[in-house]
Amino acid sequence: MKRLVVTDPALCSACCSCEVACSGTFYKRYDTELSCIRIGGASGRITVDVCDQCGTCIGVCPTEALSRNSRGIVTVDRKRCVGCMACADICPSGTVCRSWEESYVSKCIACGRCADACPLQILSVTEE
């Protein structure tokens, strides 16, 4: 299975380059709110949340728009997705997103564009 991993979240500087690259990939807009990666923080500690392809979202989709492909990646069928956000509500990493101008959600597909954009190289795509 292919997935995105964070090698050392403690090194993250919260520059948000990964979030910008992700939103640009899915929505052709550079908006961190539209990213499938979440950079956050509390108590002076930066967090980096990414999808681990667990598949928890698949079972709650009322239109069966989510499925696992042959590479193990959970994908969204945009034609079937109605944007109800049930998948986002149950996602343990909180990384399913949606532009309210679109009728579908987006989630990480381990494309690696965020990893390429990270100046500190703390993101990578692995094959398990």
Overview of the structural elements:
- Helices cover 16% and strands 20% of the residues.
- The strands form three sheets. It has a two-stranded antiparallel ribbon. Strands 2-3 form a two-stranded antiparallel ribbon. Strands 4-5 form a two-stranded antiparallel ribbon.
- The protein has helices at 17-27, 86-90, 113-117; strands at residues 2-6, 38-42, 45-49, 66-68, 74-76, 123-127.
- The relative contact order is 0.28.
- It has 128 residues and is of the alpha+beta class.
From the alpha carbons, calculate the radius of gyration and give it in angstroms. 14 Å
β-strand percent reads 15-25%
Largest sheet: 2 strands, antiparallel
The ordered H/E elements are EHEEEEHHE
Provide the number of structural domains. Answer: 1
Can you give the mean pLDDT? Answer: 94
First-to-last CA distance:
5 Å
| Secondary structure: helix percent | 10-25%
CATH architecture identity? 2-Layer Sandwich
Count of beta strands: 6
Outline type: globular
Q: Quickly count the helices.
A: 3
The level 1 CATH classification is Alpha Beta
> Ranges with pLDDT <50 over ≥5 residues?
none
What name is given to the CATH topology? Alpha-Beta Plaits
Category by helix and strand content? alpha+beta
Instruction: Identify the strand order in the major beta sheet.
Output: 1-6
